[in-house]
Specification:
Layout: E1 14-20, E2 25-35, E3 38-39, E4 42-43, E5 48-54, E6 58-65, E7 68-75, H1 76-79, H2 81-97, E8 99-100, E9 103-106, E10 111-114, E11 119-120, H3 122-129, H4 132-137, E12 140-141
Antiparallel strand pairs: 1-2, 2-5, 3-4, 6-7, 8-11, 9-10, 9-12
């Protein structure tokens, strides 16, 4: 969301947040992602940076029968209830402080609304609307 593009900054990271208690041990990931958008009939050269918090919905259960070894996925809430509850709490807190990111980008012949699965705070939305990337690609933020 900087005012000017910096070529010496590469925001690539992956963090693992571990949850360890007497009942269970698990965790989830926080990593950077990029949001692509159209620019005059093709994908823009630059992406909007965002942070993804992920936690799997399925839990791998290894089994074996007469045909051999295999695995199935079961609902994670039954296997990692404390970790899921913590993840759920973080997700709900983020939703209370943010709103969905909506912006328009130049498609082939017109401006087209983009609806990525990204949430953004009011202050970040203001900064983003004044960033170099919005200026360079003529992006227009919705819902200031």
């Amino acid at each position: 969301m900087a005012g000017e593009k910096r070529d010496d900054v590469y925001p690539f990271f992956v963090y693992s947040i571990s949850i360890v208690s007497d009942q269970e041990s698990s965790g989830f990931f926080v990593k950077n992602e990029g949001v692509s958008y159209p620019y005059h009939g093709q994908w823009a050269e630059d992406e909007l940076s965002c942070i993804l918090i992920s936690f799997p919905k399925g839990f791998q259960v290894n089994s074996e029968d007469e045909k051999g070894k295999y695995y199935i996925y079961e609902d994670i809430r039954g296997h990692k209830p404390l970790t899921y509850a913590f993840f759920d709490e973080i997700r709900d807190s983020i939703k209370k402080m943010t709103k969905p990111l909506r912006f328009s980008a130049h498609d082939a012949n017109a401006m087209k609304e983009q609806k990525p699965s990204v949430r953004i705070s009011h202050d970040a939305m203001h900064d983003l609307s004044q960033s170099w990337i919005f200026d360079k690609y003529g992006l227009v933020i919705h819902g200031k």
